[in-house]
């Protein structure tokens, strides 16, 4: 059974720092992995999606990497800003069939203070 | 497009009452998902539909929960009777397809409190 873990559960950093959020999964046979952002009282917004054949994806100050063999993904945030404060969740899709559901980690709550 | 719309945003009810949560997916999206989020269990998929047909309801916790999608623009999640342990945030999400690069678009959620 696929399990997704995120460490740390919470992180507080000063503005301007570069930071790394970690996601690990127990079964390396995945179809894709996504990183989502969740603001308080709101739904999830997709940030980056990495296909199983890819090693990384970049969007602005965000870079997500994927190492399937070790069951790990990292989300790198460069030059963090207070607006980056949110909960970040990773989610794994086990396969490409309609019955393959996203499996979410429990998230990392990030606070960036001025 | 206005995105995925959910109502109500907040619901407070007493144990034993019926609760109905509503969702309007993004127009043209063939898949609709219902999730539940709690501190203890994180985000869990309850059920999802493809073209208004339920595909996988294995996440529905028990018979007190039911979901319907009478047409492409509307879905409901009903809890009857509600219990305090049902207190959670319920999200609806939609996506045009389950392809490799297609993500799910989430609504703002309904925060349910059962007293």
Describe this protein's structure.
The complex is a heterodimer of chains A (114) and B (115). Chain A is mostly beta strands. Chain A is 0% helix and 55% strand. Chain A contains no helices and eleven strands. In chain A, strands 2, 4, 5, 9, 10 and 11 form a six-stranded mixed sheet that branches. The model of chain A has no long low-confidence stretch (mean pLDDT 93). Chain B is mainly beta and 115 residues long. Helix content of chain B is 0%, strand content 54%. Chain B contains no helices and eleven strands. In chain B, strands 2, 4, 5, 6, 9, 10 and 11 form a seven-stranded mixed sheet that branches. In chain B, 35% of the residues are buried. The model of chain B has no long low-confidence stretch (mean pLDDT 93). Chain A binds chain B through residues 31-32, 34, 41-46, 49, 51, 89, 96, 98-102, 104-107, and chain B through 4, 42-45, 48, 50, 55-56, 59, 91, 93, 98, 100-101, 103-109, 111.
Overall form of chain A: globular
Number of continuous helical runs of chain B: 0
Oligomer state equals heterodimer
pLDDT averaged over residues of chain B? 93
Give the SSE string of chain B.
EEEEEEEEEEE
Strand content of chain B: over 45%
Which structural class do you get from the secondary structure elements of chain B?
A: mainly beta
Describe the structure in brief.
Chain A is mostly beta strands and 114 residues long. Chain A has strands at residues 4-7, 10-14, 19-25, 32-38, 44-51, 56-59, 62-67, 72-77, 86-93, 103-104, 108-113. In chain A, strand 6 (56-59) and strand 7 (62-67) form a beta hairpin.
Q: Top keywords for this entry?
A:
heterodimer; A: 114 residues; mainly beta; six-stranded mixed sheet; five-stranded antiparallel sheet; B: 115 residues; seven-stranded mixed sheet; four-stranded antiparallel sheet; 11 strands; globular
């Amino acid at each position: 059974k696929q399990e997704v873990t995120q460490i740390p559960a919470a992180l507080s950093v000063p503005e301007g720092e570069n930071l790394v959020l970690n996601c690990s999964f127990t079964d390396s046979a995945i179809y894709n992995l996504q990183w989502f952002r969740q603001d308080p009282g709101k739904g999830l917004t997709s940030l980056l999606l990495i296909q199983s054949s890819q090693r990384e994806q970049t969007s602005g100050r965000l870079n997500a990497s994927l190492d399937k063999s070790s069951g790990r993904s990292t989300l790198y945030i460069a030059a963090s800003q207070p607006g980056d404060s949110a909960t970040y969740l990773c989610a794994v899709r086990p396969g490409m069939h309609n019955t393959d559901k996203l499996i979410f980690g429990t998230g990392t709550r990030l606070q960036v203070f001025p | 497009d206005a995105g995925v719309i959910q109502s109500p945003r907040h619901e407070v009810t007493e144990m034993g009452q019926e609760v109905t949560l509503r969702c309007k997916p993004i127009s043209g999206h063939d898949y609709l998902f219902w999730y539940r989020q709690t501190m203890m269990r994180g985000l869990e998929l309850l059920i999802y539909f493809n073209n208004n047909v339920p595909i996988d309801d294995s996440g529905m916790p028990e018979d007190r929960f039911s979901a319907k999608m009478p047409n492409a623009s509307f879905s409901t999640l009903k809890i009857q009777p509600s219990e305090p342990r049902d207190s959670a945030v319920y999200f609806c999400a939609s996506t045009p397809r389950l392809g490799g690069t297609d993500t799910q678009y989430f609504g703002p959620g309904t925060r349910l409190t059962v007293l």
